[in-house]
Amino acid sequence: MSVFTKTCIFITGFLLLPLLAAEIVALTTNLIFAPALGMRVTNISFFGLEFNVSDNKWTVSLRRFSPIIQHDVRFDSRKSVESFSDRKADMLQFLSVAAKFAVAAALCFSLRGLLTKPEHFTHTELLLFSFAAGMVFHAFFSLAMYIYTSLVLVKRLGGCINSIIKRLRQGESYASIDMKPMEELGLKKSTKNEQLLYYQLYMGHLAAMGNYNGMREPSHKAMNILMDRGYFVQETGSYYWLIYFFSEVEPNPQITDLLLERLGSVINKDNDANAKRVLAYYLFNIKRDFDGAQEMVNEGFRALDSDAGLATERDLERLLLTDLNERLQVINKPAAMTC
Q1: What's the pTM value of the predicted model, to 2 decimals?
Q2: Running DSSP on this structure, what letter comes out for residue 75?
């Protein structure tokens, strides 16, 4: 077996296969245990197929091919907000880590004979050995990330984000929370994922305050982050706020169309009020489709009536939908008849 062949087999076994397997383990764990903790898997995508929960039913659609398996877990909006807690989310993450260790341990135990063989590995044996080693690496990496999230992140921007989310769950409004630009928080260097999460919360605060000028700098920074990477379902909220910003504050058809293209069918299949609000502002400002915008506004109001999400988020969506609805009423109002 040549060195090149060995290298290719090892890379496949140690990097590629464990990456897919680790995601499958995490997805399976979340599908099994999330409901018991008041959460649910709301989105699954792999190999160009995307599954979304809509009206408590799974729908499937096609999107751009990606070898990465992704899924999104959220608190179950059908349950009371009071049942949500950070401890439950932390427990689900811990169970995912434990499941990866269990799978890695089972692989190592079943392949323990490979370590005692004096002869060279065959192609299959090298692939299996590399796969087991890769799963062990992913298990320890997941554990390191869990510890980092639990102990280190609380002292960084992630801790600030968790604090804001907790206050929102407790009933505080976006407007009542004193939020500042990320650069003024005085926190240590943050990751791009943290910056995008804070961007979503900060945009909610700015929208509630009517501070549209304050949206400019954070939105352009968020746009720069997203353009350097592919679409991940966990970043959907950032995409929504950017489409809103580049429709309402700085209308830019090229950017909004690019963001919508990246989202694929996600936003069209999303029946939540924020998705309807984003599409309404896009149709109103970019497409000048006032009838379509009015339809999205009406659907947004209906979603609010049936939505069991956070009251603070519903209040914000109602505020933004009402603002656009009033502008549409002026446009659609029949002209006064003159003699």
Answers
A1: 0.65
A2: E
